[in-house]
Structure formats: structure tokens, C-alpha cells
Amino acid sequence: MDPKWNEDQPIYRQLRDRVVAMILEGVLSDGDALPSVRNVAAEYRLNPLTVLKGYQELVDEELVEKKRGRGMYVNEGARKKLLRAERQRFLEIEWPKIQATIKRLGLDPEELLVAGTTDTDAGGEHE
Question: Could you give the percent of the chain with pLDDT greater than 70?
């Protein structure tokens, strides 16, 4: 996890979002243990209650489960649940903005497909 925190959002929420990103990216899989509250608090110099609050949001969303005395674990199907929610959010919130930008710039769908499949080398030049 990245130790830099954004001052525009509560740290517990950023922590929750980072765990969600780790699940979506496959860093954490179904059944994997989350880093302990104590370890995260010590590593990032956070109050353990802040870490616990972030983790509790994941429990409330049924993405993670608490196992008394053993820690917190990613629930079965958490990634699928997150993907479904993220896809829906993208289609409802992000895609309309992208469509508006495409229309405003007069971009052609074929041009976008070509641009999306063109590889770039290390210097950023098109091949």
C-alpha cells in the first residue's frame, strides 16, 4: 500500500479504497488475510482505530469477514462483487463524461479504436 495520504478524504476511507484496489487487481484473493490492524497502524503511523474503521467498512460491505482471534479475510466472491459495482459505476458516472468529451472533440469511433490499440515504445513514440 502507498503510504501517501490525500488530505481531501478521510484516511480510513483511503485505506478502504486501497484494499478494494488490491482485491480488484488480484493482489488479494478470496480467502486471503488482510494485513493486521496493528501492522498497518505501525507501518503507516496511523491510529489503530483509523485502520479498524477502514477495515470495518469492508466488513459492512461484506467484502471481508472478521474471524475472531485470527484476523480479517477476503470473502469468497469479493472481487466479482467489486467488479460488478465498479462496472456499473463506470457506466453510470464515468462513461457519460467520456462520451461527452468524445462528442465535444469530434472524435471518430474508428480513430479511438486505432488509438487504443497502438503500442508506444519507451520514448513515447508511436510504432
Answer: 91
Looking at residue 19, its amino acid is V
Chain centroid to CA 49: how far? 21
pLDDT tens readout for residues 34-55? 999 999 999 999 999 999 999 9
Map out the domains of the chain with their CATH numbers.
Answer: 11-76 (1.10.10.10), 79-117 (no CATH)
Separation CA 120–CA 118 (nearest Å): 7
Inter-residue contact 58 to 73 (CB < 8 Å) = no
Strands (E) across 1-127 are located at 64-67, 71-74
Alpha-carbon span 10 to 48, nearest angstrom: 14
Mean pLDDT of the residues in the chain: 89
Q: Which residue has the cell 494485513?
A: 35
Give the alpha-carbon dihedral of 42, 57, 3, 89, to 10 degrees. 170
